Amino acid sequence: MSKAEKSPTVPIPEAKPSSPNAAKPATSKDEFFKNIQGYLDEAARLIDLPPYIHTILQQPKNEIIVNFPVKMDDGTVRLFKGYRIQHNNLLGPYKGGVRYHESVSLDDVKALAAMMTWKCALMNLPLGGGKGGIKFNPNEVSRDELQRITRRFFHALGPNIGPETDIPAPDVGTDAKVMAWAMDTYMNTVGQLMKQAVKGVVTGKPVASGGTYGREKATAQGVVHCITEWADERDFNLGGATMIVQGFGNVGSNTSVILSKLGVSTIAVGDHAGYLYNPEGFNPHKLQDYVKRHRSIAGYPGGKPITREEFFRIKADIFTPAALENQVGVDEARDLQVRLVAEGANGPCTPEGERILLDRGIDILPDVLANSGGVTVSYYEWVQNKRSESWSIEEVDARLEKAMKKAYREVSEVARQKKQSLRIAAYCVALQRIAAAYGEREIFP
């Protein structure tokens, strides 16, 4: 495809308003951990990973499950189940987000924690992989209830987290405010002498509470850097390109906003409430503000409701899945009419869906590379907290751009050398770094 050539949009027939049921995953989430294990196995064979290292990496080091009571606004007491999975800390403290969602499960969080190990190693960060979550719908509780749930969860985790041990961050259903509550809870449990020395216990905090400039958009910014590198490789001009986005939370909305400055028009969006289409392109700033106020795209007047099936059949240049896992299965992969899938979410494509996409000549920027900008800037925040420094947005952005482009080129080169997908190449790069550390340190005792 030349620089001037674009995938044309097509008229969408009249459709009934899309329902939440239309946004359900393509396959069972129970398969997610198995999928991640499959990628690990494939990459391990390609790089001749020593069997003992492969064995260690197949399961997390620690699996923490806590059940804790919270008094709700109506006076009743509700029991919540929370998880913190610590996959591997060979390279540094466990690092990974905390997810608030009704679908959170043990295997799901195990898969996400393992992915954090690969991301940190791929980005050459002195961090390991972790992930946490609570099984509930944060949209169904009040702000005060959300704060009490957060504080009780982090209190229940106790000494299992810490700025040199395990460093949580925002994920689906959580944000900077939740991290501020988490930090304050931890600070008030470690004693007065340590209180100001532990700001780095979480990242993704508000700037006024020790956060870093650029963290909110960091994951999306990383996705965009990968898209621009991909476009440069293929001599593809992003000016005038079109995109569809599934999930218009932090990652999806910021990806749309940043790419709009490069001339990319978002023509269809979807989330848990349904899907909308606008062939002229949405105003991503207005839609982002609307979602922040209303918690979904439902009712936004700037688009026409369509079904989930119609969303996946829209012609565009780029598809950015930024929702949950396993959204692109066999049917969706056959329907998609795009040139590139840029994974803003973790595990949006099933292995079967990915094979179909690649066979059809559709490129995939894999999650382990594309959305690693979030943990990279979280690392910058952690460093600033340790040094009692505050970097400018320009410094943060410059460091992230350099890191993302370097990682993309490394992965792209390995993919060419080994004739593999970018996903397996990313796993290979990450595993080689982990294997080097195990080889030098060996096993204790």
UniProtKB/TrEMBL annotation:
Positions with biased composition (Low complexity): 15-26
CDD domains: NAD_bind_1_Glu_DH (cd01076)
Coiled coil, from the record: none
BP terms from Gene Ontology: L-glutamate catabolic process
One Pfam family here: ELFV_dehydrog
Positions that bind NAD(+): T219, N250
Annotated site, Important for catalysis, chain positions: D171
GO molecular function, one term: nucleotide binding
InterPro entries listed in its UniProt record: Aminoacid_DH-like_N_sf, Glu/Leu/Phe/Val/Trp_DH, Glu/Leu/Phe/Val/Trp_DH_C, Glu/Leu/Phe/Val/Trp_DH_dimer, Glu/Leu/Phe/Val_DH_AS, Glu_DH, NAD(P)-bd_dom_sf, NAD_bind_Glu_DH
PANTHER family per UniProt: GLUTAMATE DEHYDROGENASE (PTHR11606), GLUTAMATE DEHYDROGENASE 1, MITOCHONDRIAL (PTHR11606:SF13)
Protein name, as recorded: Glutamate dehydrogenase
Organism of derivation: Chondromyces crocatus
